[in-house]
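Q: My labmate handed me this sequence with no annotations at all. I'd like to see what the chain might look like in three dimensions before we decide whether it's worth expressing. Could you predict it?
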Amino acid sequence: MKVILSGPTGFIGREVLEQCLQNSSITSIVALSRRELPVINPKLEVIIVKDFLSYPDSVLQETKGAEACIWSLGLARVPDNVSAKEVSIEYTLAAAKAFTPTSATEKGKKFRFVYVSGAAAVRDQTKPLWFMQEFRRIRGQVENELIAYAQEHQDTFEPCIVRPGFVLAKKSSLRDMIKGLAPSVKVDVLAAAMIHVALNGGKDLIVENSAITQVAS
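A: Here is what I predict for the chain of 217 residues:
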């Protein structure tokens, strides 16, 4: 299978890329990155993207034939809500729309779009929230937009939303042990679950943190 991956330089994306390269079911990976990657592999094609809102024909030619996209793009620090909405909502929707085939594939498969959301995401935009209000609403809005797009393109687009809690390193530190007291998942387990869904589809539209380990196995 040919897979598109965004955010390959990030904490989650790096692990997804590493596992994709090791997975024999994935024959080609198109990594959308802001900068070059220190990885050379015959399965990997790196595309430097300057504008995640618009994809020229040259990029779409490289992604043509992909059957899934794992979207793990994000920013470590977002200066304001306007930037947060652009990166989280507009970038994600632009990619979903750009990479979805205009018609069903010959095998009748839908294009799978695996999106990393968060355990605290809230889809009800009017619900009063006591903490991390904007972050949770933005994540919830992305989910709403992807689901709405899927309803409009039922023959060609299949989203899967993964909602991890705290994402921990493979080798836990003291900080990770403290975070682990709350809902959490190790990054390698999260990556394995996302790849599994990209390859096989998901039983559920939304994979909550408590189900990620089961999906990964």
